[in-house]
Amino acid sequence: MAKDLETIKTFVVLATIERLKLTYADQLMIKGYDAIPDFLQYHLYCPPNKAERDIVLERLYEKLKTIAGKAMTDNIHQLILLNNLTDSLDTDTAMVIQDSNSYSENGVAIEDLIIAISKVGRFEERRQQIQMVGDALNFFYSLSKLPLIKLVMAPIKVAASMVGATSLTQTMEAGYILTSNIKDLSPFIKIFLEREARNIDDLGKINV
């Protein structure tokens, strides 16, 4: 049975997470790192209430300019841009998979995902996406080390509730909860950036 584009986009996210689990199997054995795939799946690659976020996040960004510091506001804006870029890349990938009918009732195979990504191209944007994911993880890690994080988050939560963007603060909370259980995230981020860069180089060499 043919699937709609949104369903195939979900397949794309799930296949991406499975690919990441294979690529970083050695790293996910480290305490704290094992929770990273779920965080990426549910908060960065496929955030909850995406329709809500598309409508209100830019309004939240404008409001945050008046109540949060520049560094915090800029990092939150980068999360918004990352969500938008990821959704755009996933949409293009899902369209290729849909057109080629390279999916099953259960989802998309990693091999078919890789071929579809190669057909889409947009490799420079994928490099940008990788860097933004690394920056986001580093941002959450820095949040988790703030001694007064609840005080920092309080005005952001208020602003988010005023524009109906509570899912963003949920992502931030999930991010700093994740990283608060990690002693040092920088080795993972370094490995992530290196391996994903090589992965993109390899994608560009595939004949499709």
Outline:
The chain is mainly α. The protein has helices at 5-23, 36-45, 50-64, 70-100, 110-120, 123-144, 149-163, 166-180, 186-203.
Provide keyphrases for this structure.
208 residues, 0% strand, mainly alpha
Low-confidence stretches: none
The portion of residues forming beta strands comes to under 5%
Main sheet overview? none
Number of domains: 1
Order of helices and strands: HHHHHHHHH
Extended strand count: 0
CA radius of gyration: 18 Å
Content-based structural category:
mainly alpha
Number of helical stretches of at least 4 residues = 9
Distance between the termini: 26 Å
Characterization of the model:
The protein is mainly α. The chain has one domain (5-203). Helices cover 75% and strands 0% of the residues. The protein has helices at residues 5-23, 36-45, 50-64, 70-100, 110-120, 123-144, 149-163, 166-180, 186-203. Helix 6 (123-144) packs across helix 8 and helix 7 (149-163) runs antiparallel to helix 8 (166-180). The longest helix has 31 residues, at 70-100. The protein is globular, with a radius of gyration of 18 Å. The protein starts with a helix and ends in a 5-residue tail after the last helix. The relative contact order is 0.16. The mean pLDDT is 85.
